[in-house]
Amino acid sequence: MNHDRSDEKLQKYYEKIREQAESAGYHLNADEEFTKSLLESILVNIYRYGYGACPCRLASGIKEEDLDIICPCDYRDPDLQDYDACYCGLYVSRDILSGEKKLTPIPERRPAPEEREKAKKSKIHPAKTGSLTLPVWRCKVCGYLCAREEPPELCPICKVDKERFARFL
């Protein structure tokens, strides 16, 4: 592949992901070279597997087994909540973006393969039994609902700050 063409493709992908992140209330790492290297790895995974597996985790090549690690992965929001960045450092909090906090190592949240297999074999999902495992938060401005430990830093719909959320369930 032509190197210029590859750089152009990466730049377009970077701009697309940055726009999507910002419009949803998220922030990409301000280190553009680092961020682009992660996005380039995601593009490699799209080419290799047909889906954008997280560049910092080992993908199986079987989409159904890797759904939790397709970027943005299932662990992004809890990592942002607890550590101000996702596992690979692609997404960061406003505090890290502004320099008030520094990136620190983040422990792996993804269950071990045997635990994922055990959960997959368990046909009973908590939501189907009527017992929620996470609180549900409602944006008081637009009504957006999300189930997670804490409300998002910014509402992905109307962009108000987390203090505008109230516990719904």
The ordered string of helix (H) and strand (E) elements is HEHHHEHHEEE
Overall residue-averaged pLDDT value? 89
Number of strands: 5
Segments where pLDDT lies below 50 for 5+ residues? 124-129
Helix content: 25-40%
CATH topology of the largest domain: Ferredoxin Thioredoxin Reductase
* Coarse morphology: globular
The strand order across the widest sheet is 4-3-5
Classified by CATH, the class of the largest domain is Alpha Beta
Instruction: Give the total of domains.
Output: 2
| CATH H-level superfamily of the largest domain | Ferredoxin thioredoxin reductase catalytic beta subunit
Structural class by secondary-structure content: mainly alpha
- Describe the sheet with the most strands: 3 strands, antiparallel
Radius of gyration: 17 Å
Give the count of helical stretches.
6
Task: State the CATH architecture of the largest domain.
Answer: Alpha-Beta Complex
Report how far the terminal alpha carbons are from each other.
52 Å
Report the sheet-strand fraction: 5-15%
Structure commentary:
By secondary structure, the protein is mostly helical. It has two domains: 95 residues, Ferredoxin thioredoxin reductase catalytic beta subunit (Ferredoxin Thioredoxin Reductase, Alpha-Beta Complex), CATH 3.90.460; 44 residues, Rubrerythrin, domain 2, CATH 2.20.28.10. The chain is 38% helix and 8% strand. It has six helices and five strands, in the order αβαααβααβββ. The strands form two sheets. It has a three-stranded antiparallel sheet, with no helix packed on it. A hairpin with a 5-residue loop joins β3 and β4. The longest helix has 21 residues. The N and C termini lie far apart (52 Å).
